[in-house]
Write a structure and sequence with these properties.
Elements lengths: L12 E5 L3 H12 L3 E5 L5 H4 L7 E4 L13 E4 L4 H14 L2 E4 L12 E5 L2 E5 L7 H16 L15 E6 L10 H9 L2 E4 L5 H5 L7 E4 L11 H13 L3 E6 L9 H10 L4 E4 L4 H8 L12 E6 L6 H8 L3 E6 L5 H10 L7 E6 L7 E6 L3 H8 L5 E5 L11 H4 L6
Parallel strand pairs: 1-2, 1-4, 2-3, 4-5, 8-11, 8-12, 9-10, 9-11, 13-14
Antiparallel strand pairs: 6-7, 14-17, 15-16, 15-17
Helix pairs in contact: 7-8
Bound molecules: S-adenosyl-L-homocysteine (SAH).
The site of S-adenosyl-L-homocysteine has 25 residues, from helix 9 and strand 17.
């Protein structure tokens, strides 16, 4: 029978006998597990030689002697000679030291597991009898995929001494546009503080029922939870030892106030990290086939919050034919933006596209021009969330030959 023990090899001595390719892989693994390695071999393969400089490795350049066992907690033998390996395994058995015997057909008192780490979870896969490394690795890899996608219930059941906050970007909407890191952190979270944008509805329904979900979502003109209260909430839960995910639509650092939340956590001494995500500034135009920088058409893009006053920088970007202007949160302020631009002498014929609900089933694109867009948006009943793109890349026929685009310009 085989049992998988969670050994602590940190700073413990592992004896590795043999200098071939198998030893090289195992030495790397033991080092990764924190062990010190005593290597005994008259000759080394290049792969083992490359490991000699690693901290914690010492080499006895000769054949094995029983004195080499002294001080070793675990032994790994792969000399390439089954008789020698078996003799070393027998010696270990007498000394009650666990031994992995890598020779075919003859196994020691221990065997390697196929191992994976994710966050603070370690999973090892072993066979009951015999060794089938390919199968073990396959099982390990499948589990690894589930782990990294956050599809296993790995949430810690005991509060940690110190909690943490992760500012997690959820992307523009679909769950499969989230990063695997975002999914994993959500699966590990005790508390999720969320906005309404992005993939929140779909991923929140997958959480354990006892995960605390706090909706602090904001809509334009309606700010249910003030920013300093959100900051205080994040800090309070993390201080109580909880893992807090602050889930945001798009990228946390693009008009997401992620910087303020990070600064507040840092000031409170809370460990905090950011997980990036596709920002709607790029991903929403792209969903409508608009490349914000298209070679020969636009060589830069300017991203602006449409709620504020129209700045000189934005007017200069609008005036520059080689710059694409991308407006977030811009539906209500569109008439003001257009008015400023036209009064500033920007041609009324400049192309404008409005992409509503990008990357969702409700996605809709309105193609217009600076001169006509206010009326067109009103007629179409454009609503948030929407991204407004101004510049030649917003032309309906940009990626299609003109004759094909005729009649499809509204799409
Ligand atoms: N941090 C976010 C932006 C937050 S500001 C990001 O990087 O994407 C909110 C604005 O993002 C909305 O007003 C809208 O302009 C835009 N937005 C976000 N998701 C969108 C979507 N799926 N479709 C269209 N616009 C979207």
């Amino acid at each position: 029978m085989t049992s998988v023990l969670g050994l602590s090899l940190t700073d413990r001595l592992v004896l590795v006998v043999g200098g071939g390719a198998v030893s090289a892989r195992r030495i790397s693994r033991f080092l990764a597990d924190g062990a010190r390695v005593r290597l005994v071999a008259p000759e080394l393969s290049p792969a083992v030689r490359a490991l000699l400089d690693a901290p914690g490795v010492t080499w006895r350049s000769r054949r094995f002697r029983s004195a080499d066992l002294r001080g070793a907690w675990v032994v790994h033998t792969a000399t390439g000679d089954p008789v020698t390996d078996r003799a070393i395994a027998a010696l270990c058995e007498r000394r009650r030291t666990f031994c992995v015997n890598a020779s075919d057909g003859a196994h020691g008192t221990a065997r390697m597991t196929a191992q994976i780490r994710s966050g603070d979870v370690v999973i090892g896969v072993a066979g009951e009898v015999g060794v089938d490394p390919t199968r073990a690795a396959r099982v390990r890899d499948e589990i690894g995929t589930l782990l990294t996608e956050g599809r296993l219930p790995v949430r810690a059941r005991r509060a940690a001494a110190v909690g943490r906050v992760d500012l997690v970007g959820g992307g523009p909407g679909p769950v499969d546009l989230m990063t695997v890191r975002a999914r994993r952190l959500l699966a590990e979270a005790d508390v999720v503080v969320t906005d309404r944008l992005g993939p929140s509805a779909a991923v929140l329904s997958e959480l354990d029922p006892d995960v605390l979900v706090i909706d602090v979502g904001k809509r334009p003109g309606d700010h249910p939870v003030p920013q300093d209260e959100i900051n205080a909430l994040l800090i309070a839960h993390a201080t109580a030892g909880r893992r807090v995910v602050r889930l945001k639509g798009g990228d946390p650092f693009v008009f997401g106030r992620g910087g303020e939340e990070m600064a507040a956590c840092l000031a409170a001494g809370i460990p905090v990290d950011v997980v990036p995500a596709p920002s709607s500034a790029v991903a929403v135009p792209q969903a409508a086939g608009i490349p914000v920088t298209h070679r020969g058409v636009a060589s830069a893009f300017h991203v602006v919050n449409g709620q504020g006053p129209v700045s000189d920088t934005t007017l200069r970007a609008l005036a520059d034919e080689t710059v694409t202007t991308v407006v977030l949160m811009g539906v209500a302020g569109l008439p003001r933006l257009v008015d400023s631009a036209l009064r500033h002498g920007i041609p009324a014929a400049r192309a404008v596209a409005i992409v509503e609900n990008g990357h969702t089933a409700a996605q809709r694109t309105i193609r217009s021009t600076l001169g006509a867009v206010v009326a067109d948006a009103a007629a179409a009943g454009v609503r948030n969330p929407a991204v407004i793109v101004i510049g030649d890349v917003a032309r309906a026929d940009l990626l299609l030959p003109r004759q094909v685009a005729v009649g499809g310009a509204a799409g």
